[in-house]
Amino acid sequence: MKIAVDAMGGDNAPQTVVAGVEHARDEFEDTEFLLYGVEKEIRKYLKNETRITIIHTDEMIMMNDEPVKAIRRKKNASMVLAARAVKEHKADAIFSCGNTGALLAAGLLIVGRIKGISRPGLLSTLPMIGTEEGAFNLLDSGANAENKAEHLHQYAILGKYYAQNVRHIENPRIGLLNNGTEPHKGSKVTQEAYQLLAEDPNLNFVGNIEASNILNDAADVVVADGFTGNAVLKAIEGTASAIMHLVKKAILDSGLKGKIGGLLLKSSLKGLKEKMNQSQYGGAVLLGVKAPVVKAHGSSDGQTVYYTLKQIHTMIEGEMIPDFVNYFSQEHAASKTKEQSI
Amino acid sequence: MKIAVDAMGGDNAPQTVVAGVEHARDEFEDTEFLLYGVEKEIRKYLKNETRITIIHTDEMIMMNDEPVKAIRRKKNASMVLAARAVKEHKADAIFSCGNTGALLAAGLLIVGRIKGISRPGLLSTLPMIGTEEGAFNLLDSGANAENKAEHLHQYAILGKYYAQNVRHIENPRIGLLNNGTEPHKGSKVTQEAYQLLAEDPNLNFVGNIEASNILNDAADVVVADGFTGNAVLKAIEGTASAIMHLVKKAILDSGLKGKIGGLLLKSSLKGLKEKMNQSQYGGAVLLGVKAPVVKAHGSSDGQTVYYTLKQIHTMIEGEMIPDFVNYFSQEHAASKTKEQSI
User: Fold this and answer.
1) Model confidence band, residue B255 (pLDDT cutoffs 50, 70, 90)
2) Sorted alphabetically, which InterPro entries does this protein's record hold (chains A, B) (predicted)?
């Protein structure tokens, strides 16, 4: 398999990207990497070229570029070239730590939607910090600012296949993010989505889930409209970071006694930090397009880049995309037949 | 002033309610309390009847009652009688720890909307745990499942007066909860709301605020549609509680060394817990109705009930409601004149 890598995206690119790619290359012997970016810069950090091809380009998309314009105008940007390689079947997936909006636009406009899918959604993986272990997927976590109930139904199916093929959960529990647990709760969109999910015999639908309970093993896949999903994701991240900062500060400000206490607790608190570290679950994946389009955080280190490439490897190996294509082409055909017979 | 109290709402009612009322009664010599509920039960805990009147009723609204039905059918429920006392000007505000949906319905259907306000919103106060100190208000935090841009504009005005009259912030910064900071970001509703807020010369509008930054002193009042506001509020509460649980567990599971560390840190961690404790800010307030309708958490202790009654006292003393009425009646008249002149 081949993974197209935007080597220039991210705060510490291309250094951290190259480090992560080399780590993944050493682990996955069946995988080649196409690195798009400034050759001289990439070579500064590259130790070994085995199964790594550099495709030189000077152009790149900046973090403050307007996404759609950037994709259309910067035709030779590292991200655009990487996406085009996927479109032209020269690579099986694209990875970037760069501008999220631009990568979503590249996914939609260059890689392209799978037939039958209206609105691809962004899937994030979060640790279930309310429980002993485990994680859950949230989608759409921000690809769309507005969604209809039928989109949420498609997210449930996309999330189900992701959880099965990548996380190896046999029968993933699907929940609907809502402002109450009762079936009649919520907006028009969530009320309609509840019906669609409840009536679909292929889904293990466990009902509405409130944001207060999302970290407590309530479901394996939580479906939301992109606006709310994004807000909840950011609220969780912001709160976790604020509290960890407070804990640290409480230790530092508490005099000698507290500092000794902090030292004695160092390893436990480190374990806690690791538990909350999302990087082991890889990046955010745009689901519903013809290949994995995967975004890691701009501040990703080499380890996070490696984990995300590993996640992409699992997606390709698990044949997630062919599963999507099959399902939605059948759905598409079935709904066409249905329309014709009416 | 007089406060109507639903003595039967909450997990430990009427005990905790009575304790909080007596504490508030001892502090605020200008205030009388009307307690609605089972007289025998209330008397069990009441130490001193000064400025406290008990109005006996056997009926009450349960936590799982369907809100609107309960308000309409249980005409003698403690909550309904307390709301009716406000409607009939026998009291200036209503307090309850009971069924939130029912209290919102009582506010809308019995106390009634202020003229010119389309959709009253629920205001919550949260600590800015990302900073040294301070708090912010979030509204609508869940009274509505759907909102239009003009409702969000009204929430900004309601929130502004609340922050001025109750929190004594001279020129409160108003932010709009959105999925990006740039003005063009978001859904149709948030894009339109951005324009309305930016164009209002009476508002100190500071722009879009992402949920990741909401705890970091980004604004004094954050305006949101009720669906997203509710989801973000619950995500913050759920994450905070999950992490504090993890910190506790990390200490307990870390052997003797960690336990000693935990003991040494006990007072610092207690300070942290207090910082995150929302009860000192009082309860959630339905704004846009003709009197303060205030909800404290079902699990509130006497101290929280006291803080919430203190908050109500400040609202009445600060003449928040007359300010609302003035503003919106002028707005209403102005928009009528404008309509006629077109």
Assistant:
1) confident
2) FA_synthesis, Phospholipid_synth_PlsX-like
Backbone angles phi, psi at B140, to 5 degrees: -75, 125
One-character DSSP codes across A153-181:
HHHHHHHHHHHHHTT--SS-EEEEE-SSS
Judged by CB atoms closer than 8 Å, whether chains meet at B211 and A142 is answered as no
| Domain boundaries, position B202 | 123-277
Chain B residues in contact with A226 (beta carbon < 8 A): 179
Query: Contact, A231 vs A150, CB < 8 A?
Result: no
CB B258 within 8 A of CB A265: yes
Which structure tokens are listed for A193? 């989505």
Same domain membership, residue B131 and residue B109? no
Residue A199 lies in a domain: yes
The pair of structure tokens assigned to A278 is: 């999302």
Chain A residues 147-206 with a CB less than 8 Å from chain B: 177, 179, 185-188, 190
Length of chain A: 342
Q: Which two tokens stand for residue A75?
A: 């035709």
In a domain, B74, yes or no: yes
Does the beta carbon of B271 lie under 8 angstroms from any beta carbon of chain A?
A: yes
Q: Is the pLDDT of residue B342 over 80?
A: no
The answer to whether residue A143 neighbours chain B at the CB level (below 8 Å) is no
Q: Predicted ipTM?
A: 0.92
| Rounded CA separation A84/A90 (Å) | 8
Measured between CA atoms, the residue of chain B closest to residue A242 is B130
